[in-house]
Amino acid sequence: MKKIMIGLFAVALSACTTASAMNVLSQSEGHLNLQEEVTRLDELWLKNYNEFAFDLHQQLSNEKESTFFSPASILLALGMTAQGADQETLSQMLAAFNMDNVDQLEFANQMKQFQLRLLSYKSNTLNLGNSIWMREGFDEFVRDDFLKVNKDYYGAFIAALDFNDSASSKTINRWVKENTYGLIDKIVEDDINPLTVMFLINTVYFKAEWMKTFDKNLTRDETFYAKTQKSVKFMNQDGNFPYVETADYQAIMLPYKEFESSMIIFLPKEGKDIALTAQLYNEIFSDMSRQIVSATQSKLIRLSLPKMELSTEIKLVDTLNMLGMTNAFNAQKADFSKMSSTALQDQLHIANVLHKAVLKVDEKGTEAAAATSVEMGVTSMPILDASMIVNRPFTLVLADATGAVIFMGDVLDPQP
Asked: Would you call 289 helix, strand, or coil by DSSP?
């Protein structure tokens, strides 16, 4: 019995490209058409989603190096894949997402609402892209319902390619590069595994300017203290920011234009070993949101923040296994019979999940991209309220105005 695999990619950024020599089955731009504006997300869904984000963060945190990833990109890629799962495979996937309280179609609808929320930005740029690439010949066995739900609820661009032709990987990688505006230029190897029959790709691209930009003339070299000391460039400003401080930590929110999204910096006090959990994040975000609507609660903070450039590549199979999503990777147990009519006899399963993410933070704002691949086989001195010098390891969260985590990570070395 042969074992065939699916490759699923979640990549942060948008746009799509066409290519000759491919059979386009869904001529979508790779994202949903903005037919409605979503300003709020279901509270239970949001809670469950952020718990998934922090579950990933807990698994991926590494004391030796920085981590940066997009739970949004990862979930969107896996979400498309889950539409082809059934029985215990589906149950495990939804449970890993902390969304086992809904059925398959309701999950798709909730993911649609999430995407519509992210696509509604007007002052900042947040683009999404979804695509499904199938091996020519295998596409004959892919179920129409699977493709339709990914077209209707994800706006997926769908095409069939000759995976034996080296031009196919170039076509897919070109799509990724265009959708990430050059930040991520490759997700598929030049030679596609002969047993790989499908790639599912999500892209998320974010670019935004600070509500209050940093003055470049105030940027200077200072020491960042991690396992080894390093001189890096620190941006400096005094400003009114949502801010929380306890005996254990400092946390500050840096809003982007029109408060559509923000970056939250969580800095443990020196000598304090405290991690940012989902519950603590929710408490901090709620407090900061109240400060935004109450000018009397704003605080004047002297902030010193390092400029950052991070680039990470993470294989997620072990991580997802730890979250209980085991059958999807097991050729003998995987059930993707809602994806392909021959899934069970071909032992169709996920062979690899690869995530790539890039972050750039400077005086003007932030640019970030992420990619996840799941391969299945087959002037005067002011009176300050506080000072926050971010000169040691910290956690950052790039969040939507609803509180949904878009990107997050731990910064141990802010610059390459």
From this structure: helix
Q: What is the CATH number of domain 216-307+380-411?
A: 2.30.39.10
Q: What is the pTM of this model?
A: 0.92
The dihedral built from the CA positions of residue 302, 416, 271 and 322, taken in this order, carries a sign that is positive
- Give me the sign of the Cα torsion angle 149, 323, 205, 166: negative
Please, what CATH class does the domain formed by 5-209+309-377 belong to? alpha beta
Cα separation, 375 vs 4, in Å, equals: 10
**Radius of gyration (Cα) for the chain, nearest Å?**
22
For residue 188, the 8-state DSSP code is S
Domain limits, CATH 2.30.39.10, in the chain: 216-307+380-411
279-330 tens-digit pLDDT:
999 999 999 999 988 766 778 999 999 999 999 999 999 999 999 999 999 9
Q: From 13, 31, 28, 70, select the one nearest 404 (Cα to Cα).
A: 70
Q: Where in the chain is the domain with CATH 3.30.497.10?
A: 5-209+309-377
CA 153 from centre of chain: 18
DSSP 78-128: HHHHHTT--HHHHHHHHHHTT-TTS-HHHHHHHHHHHHHHHTT-SSSEEEE
